[in-house]
Amino acid sequence: MLQELDGLRALARSLVHGDADADDLLQDTAVAALEHPPALDHRPVRAWLGAVLRNRWRMDRRSAMRRQAREHAALAEAPGAAADADAPAGIGRARALEKLAAALVALDEPFRTAVIRRYLDGRSAAELARELGIPASTVRWRLRTGLSRLRAALDDSSPRWHRAFLPFLGVTVKTKTSTAAVLAVLVLLALLGGLAWWIHHGAAPAIVTAPVAPRPAPPPPAPRAAPAAPPVRELLSGQVRASVEPGDAAGGLLAGRVVNWATGDGVAGAELTFTSDAGAATVRSRDDGGFELAPPAPGRFTLAAAAAPGFLPYAPELLHSTVHVALARGQTVRGITVFLFPALDYRGRVVDAHGAPAPGAHVRLLGTPAGEQIIDRLETEWTADRDGGFTFHAADGAVLEATQGAMRGWAQLDSDTAITRQLTIALGDAAPRDATITGRTIDAGGGALADVLIRASPTTFDRTRSTAFATSGPDGTFTLRGLDRDAYDLDAEAEDRAPASLAGVHGGSRDVTITLDAGLAIAGQVLDGRGAPAPAYTLLVFRHEGVARHLVVARSLVDPRGRFEVRVARGSYELIASAPGWAPSAPTRAEAGARDVALTLSAGATLRGTVVDAADQHPIGYARVVREASSGGASIQPANAGAISRPDGTFELTGIPPGLLSVTISAPGFNPRIESGMTASDGATLGPLGVGLTRLAEGQQPVTELVGIGIVFAADGDELSVTRVIAAGGAEAAGIVAGDRVSAIDGLPVAPLGVDGAVAKIRGIEGTTITVTVHRGDQQIQLIVTRRKLKAS
């Protein structure tokens, strides 16, 4: 059983935050298993242990909520009393110890090493100075700064954390805890490390007194050179069609491959954790990235976590995974692709209001749009060096904050950063983002709803504002943190409930109530281009509001029958299904409550081409070619994955839907390019398309090269509001100005086209024209606009 626990580590990390909490959860599971072992029958031990682990997690959550209620009551009655009156306070002290351990591990370098080697290894400042080859004054500064940041981290994260240490220290601890008190607890933490190590390695119990060393972040894997003539399956990485075939597995079988998003190569040693009502199962990918899930009995599973050294992990909140798998007896589903994103080294730089470096500035990760947990020990805080620089890993769309004294600044890791690997944060005089939104999630009868995922998205577009996430507790309460005072749109989702939303909630709001009712089901089947059930696909459900199309549900599904069922609020919706190797289904309207919706994929077209350096015509390998269209599904299984060019620069993009086609081509170190003016049809082969990318100069920011009319717009009711006109474009020459509202393109109203459809109509061949109908005040104007080559940031 102890050996099986190691396979549950990924599940434990997906249930709690941080390695310390995961080790504690595994420890509690081991104790429960040893005290009450399972019956010696043929049931798999890991599934039984997975069920025990999840039960322990639920018990811990309930205990935590009860403890918090008691602590709040005690503080209200006796603000100066120590919280050691009852047994749960012991758990509280243990949790506080975990927070201190997490704060130490999260402490950025070089301060973390200095604190550990000084106070856990017993080195003096002079010894450290000799070993590191730096002045003793520098060592003392690092120690002083490190301890100061430890105190600040603990005080900010839990204002009453010091109460839990009273029984250990035997002294009155003030808000600014003494260095001796912190170090006493650190030594205690070092002595408590043995049992977790024993659980993980299956060795005899031992007390470990060795210093606690941070786990280094693994380097991103180096791309492997592809063979000269690889097989088709390798060429179409991420575009392989899933298939169903008979098998002899009693619980069915799922076979697939974990793929590096950047190179298309298989990822070896990736751990995929699937959960179900029967427990959890973790499978590991082979050297070629292949994996198999073969449960003992059929059932429904969710992909709870996926992680591999050198890659950003996939770990959504428990009960909120968007990857769902249904397996049937005697059926094998093959051809599933799971993407992992490399943990690339990005170089950040903090500058002051005058553009000068800001050494010593503190930088922290605020969050990512997807809200996935970081289950590996990735850094989330950094300190700028003497040139204002720092190196970091983060997911696309992440927002980072830099502070120095009263000055603050923010920046987002966007597509430009992904190309240049450079991010600059400019400091300025700005208010801190320390506001919260608190509230409660309830059902239609007013009862509390637990485990509801709440997302707070900025109402207005701003690259420097981040999305916040929270999960409601057993009493339905939630707190969204790290917000500014502007407006946010709140979206809430829970299993077997219709999603709910609230618009325009300002940071600092209290007692917000979100009601999620049971809603109505929309059910149906997805068929492939041959009329057979599609065994793997992504389902997107949209709600139309004029020209805008809001994504309500995104699921990546595996089901040999091609069946789906989602719950939504009353109303009308638009459904689209996408699957690797097939063209997406046509948008299909359905009312909430419909049970027989049919979505049919098509063969689509194939685009072939070559990506080269525009200057010397040398081929560019590992360039990504993707349809210019909205995406969805899980980050690990995007609906619009695209293709990757081979080392000789050639590529094949399959599954292109009929109609106008625009593709975006991007590669690290080059300006991205949008190619358009192509029309696809089922079964057609387009190309060969030659794409020349312009290399970025040193320090240059990327610009997208495209053919269009030169406007930037946003959905505004049944029209598109022009927010910016690009200089030297056809729109500027025709007289379109910011504030105009586009109502039709070539005589077609933009409302039924949607944003994607409008973009497709605007793209085209250089020198051709389109008719744009705009409203300006009370006037309606028709303008003939010429498409031109443009460069847009």
Overall geometry: globular
Question: Low-confidence parts lasting 5 or more residues at pLDDT below 50?
Answer: 77-87, 156-236
Could you tell me the strand content as a percent range? 35-45%
Helix content: 10-25%
Q: How far apart are the termini?
A: 56 Å
Radius of gyration: 28 Å
Q: What class, by secondary structure content?
A: alpha+beta
Average predicted confidence as pLDDT: 80
Strand order of the largest sheet: 4-3-6-8-26-25-28-29
Question: What composes the largest sheet?
Answer: 8 strands, mixed
Number of strands: 47
Discrete helix count: 15
Question: How do you describe this structure in short?
Answer:
With 793 residues, this protein is of the alpha+beta class.
What does this structure look like?
It is a single chain. With 793 residues, the chain is of the alpha+beta class. It has 15 helices and 47 strands. The strands form twelve sheets. It has an eight-stranded mixed beta sheet. A hairpin with a 2-residue loop joins β3 (271-276) and β4 (279-284). α2 crosses α3 (19-35), α3 crosses α4 (45-77) and α3 packs across α11 (194-201). The radius of gyration is 28 Å and the shape is globular. The termini are far apart. The model is unreliable at 77-87 and 156-236 (pLDDT under 50).
Please give a handful of descriptors for the protein shown:
793 residues; alpha+beta; 8-stranded mixed sheet; 6-stranded antiparallel sheet; 15 helices; 22% helix; 36% strand
List the helices and strands and how they pair.
Blueprint: H1 2-5, H2 9-15, H3 19-35, H4 45-77, H5 88-106, H6 111-120, H7 125-132, H8 136-157, H9 166-169, H10 179-191, H11 194-201, H12 232-235, E1 243-246, E2 253-260, E3 271-276, E4 279-284, E5 290-293, E6 299-307, E7 311-312, E8 323-327, E9 331-342, E10 346-351, E11 362-367, E12 381-383, E13 389-392, E14 399-404, E15 407-412, H13 415-420, E16 422-426, E17 435-442, E18 453-458, E19 468-471, E20 477-483, E21 487-493, E22 500-506, E23 512-515, E24 520-527, E25 536-545, E26 548-558, E27 563-568, E28 572-578, E29 588-591, E30 597-600, E31 605-613, E32 624-627, E33 633-634, E34 637-638, E35 643-644, E36 650-656, E37 659-666, E38 673-680, E39 685-693, E40 704-708, E41 711-716, E42 719-725, H14 730-734, E43 741-745, E44 748-749, H15 750-762, E45 769-776, E46 779-786, E47 788-792
Parallel strand pairs: 2-9, 8-26, 10-16, 17-23, 24-30, 31-39
Antiparallel strand pairs: 1-9, 2-5, 3-4, 3-6, 6-8, 7-9, 10-13, 11-12, 11-14, 14-15, 17-20, 18-19, 18-21, 21-22, 24-27, 25-26, 25-28, 28-29, 31-36, 32-35, 32-37, 33-34, 37-38, 40-47, 41-42, 42-43, 43-44, 43-45, 45-46
